[in-house]
Amino acid sequence: MxxxxxxxxxxxxxxSVPGHPTLNAMVTSSQIVNAYAxxxxxxxxxxxxxxxxxxxxxxxxxxFDMSRSExxxxxxxxxxxxxxxxxxxxxxxLYVDHAHxxxxxxEVSNPRDAVLWDRAGVNVMNAAAEAAVAAPGGERILLYKNxxxxxxxxxxxxxxxLMRRTTAFADIVRHLTPFFISRQVFTGAGRLGIGQEGQxxxxxxxxxxDFFEVEVGLETTLKRPIINTRxxxxxxxxxxxxxxxxxxxxxxxxxxxxxKMGTTAIVLSMIEDGYLDTFDAMPVDPxxxxxxxxxDTTLTHVIAVSRGRQWTAIDMQRAFLEHAWNYCxxxxxxxxxxxxKEVLTMxxxxxxxxxxxxxxxxxxxxxxxxLSLLEGYVRRDGLAWxxxxxxxxxxxxxxxxxxxxxxxxxxxxxxxxxxxxxxxVDRARQQPPQDTRAYFRGECxxxxxxSIAAASWDSVVFDIPQREALLRVPTLEPTRGTFAHxxxxxxxxxxxxxxIDALTDD
Length: 506
Hints:
single chain, alpha+beta, Creatine Kinase, Chain A, domain 2, 2 domains, six-stranded antiparallel β-sheet, four-stranded mixed β-sheet, 38% helix
């Protein structure tokens, strides 16, 4: 058992153009994506497109496929709409999704790397915004790592985890539902406003919670479910299921992201191994509790659990943590690695501190950091909680500009903890992780840009003039195509034709 598993994050960024509130968001988002594509290619034209051929967004983990005629248009993510879509040299994907620029990290093998390449995405977006404004006729574009415009729209920060295909989906639903509801105490990004349109002027833990309306479902933009059932592994479907998690907030805090990914990875391991089979924490009314936990900043809300039990969110998280410690300590020393211990220790420490003095985690947990800022303005200026200036503070916390964003300024003052320095983050912006298939994809894009016809998570398609047809190199196993596996082949291949020959011989 370990927190190590294939995982990644995809984040839609809020976007605005000051002075142009009605500007077409798709056009503006495309400007962002295209500006960065031009920047990383140094002006060279790459013909690589995203390969949609193997995608199946309507396949449901419950054992059926939704009809395309019944699906909302936003669910048809396997259609090429001609919007900007770029495969980056660091193995990530940068594209336009639902009128937002979206950065999907490359596949990584552990929570620390998830934090690092997610943080690299912020640098990508900052560089893209600067490149867009520098272009002829370019407008100043502001980007926010948040989840709602407080006018009824929400946009996601989705987590992805590869799991064993053999794990019963009913077990995933039974255990992850209470875990997701209660983990808001440390994953919430904080929001001023309650209700989908923020109609009540009060503060809550999560930006996303109010937008969930059902317990289980395939949708991601309408009737959002706590447990998403999309069965699109982007890997060997006989071996893997990709758990697509849509309940998470977009975190500015590295620690919050680390806890979000690390604790979820541990819970998934327990589910896979049947360790939670006798543990029942399912709330009586999950959707209601999703909202109520988020609305309670005192962390004392009581969740009605099956068999008449009553737990707070922290109580529920402690129950998962206790099982996790017992589970991990029952494994071999090799499986119980240092990063796993780090996640477990940090998990328990934050639960203790949240219960005893929530403000003691203002340097690591986003909602607490944001609440501390807002309460400071309320005390200093005598503001009411419906004052527009407080909503501006809420928004500015997520502004990704290093000189304007409040989270960034807290980091600069040592009041919000960082896990990586600028050099490490910039390297991740340019280079792929070395221990997943993202290494092969990213290096191919960097080394052979004119020979890549298309790419996806599970293949790279080459267009080589000497060959009559396009050549698809499958990458169905996420732990192959690593530095150790292919770097010597890439180094010995001056062009794509040589690479294909070497891979064929290999």
